[in-house]
Amino acid sequence: MTEPVGGLYITSALIIRLVKYMSTTALSEDALSTTLSALADPTRRAILARLAAGEASVTELAEPFAMTMPAVSKHLKVLERAHLIERSRRAQWRPCRLAPEPLRDVADWVEHYRGLWEDRLDRLDDYLTELQAGAATGPARQDEANA
Fold first, then answer.
1. For 11, phi and psi rounded to 5 degrees?
2. pLDDT per residue as tens digits for the range 61-90
């Protein structure tokens, strides 16, 4: 079934694909915001760094911090909501482990800006090289070259 829209014919399949794309894009942006918000706190980044070495219990994760267990649990809940960690249950032990997928999403998002910053840093390098070359020739030699 097709429907004319602004001189274009849009099929039902195309509409379904657009809706799926728009919903996943909105969710991805929201997930990215949630991930970046979770990563904004240095305590949570330290917890993730510890979990990069392997799974750990809440008690083990709390050891290096001068805070209460409820405070550590709140940090873990933020990380869990951002899907940065996973918790499982083994009897009474609830180990946490790193879930790296959201970090990959952040890396992909940052990658879009890498070219921009590399170009700017290359231009800065060229400018600094010119300044150093000018300083090496000195003002007297520049006057001779202009004469």
1. -85, 160
2. 999 999 999 999 999 999 999 999 999 887
For 4-67, where are the alpha helices, taking DSSP H only? 12-39, 42-51, 58-62
Write out the two tokens for 27. 């969710």
Structure tokens given for 48? 């993730």
Q: Which CATH architecture has domain 41-99?
A: Orthogonal Bundle (1.10)
Helix (H, G, I), strand (E, B) or coil at 57: coil
Give me the residues paired with residue 97 across strands.
86
State the Cα–Cα distance between residues 81 and 115, nearest whole angstrom: 31
Name the β-bridge partners of 10. Answer: 3
Question: Which of 84, 24, 126 has the alpha carbon at shortest distance from 75?
Answer: 84
CB 133 within 8 A of CB 95: no
Q: What angle do CA 34, 40, 43 make, to 5 degrees?
A: 115
Across 7-14, average pLDDT: 54
Neighbours of 9 (CB within 10 A): 9
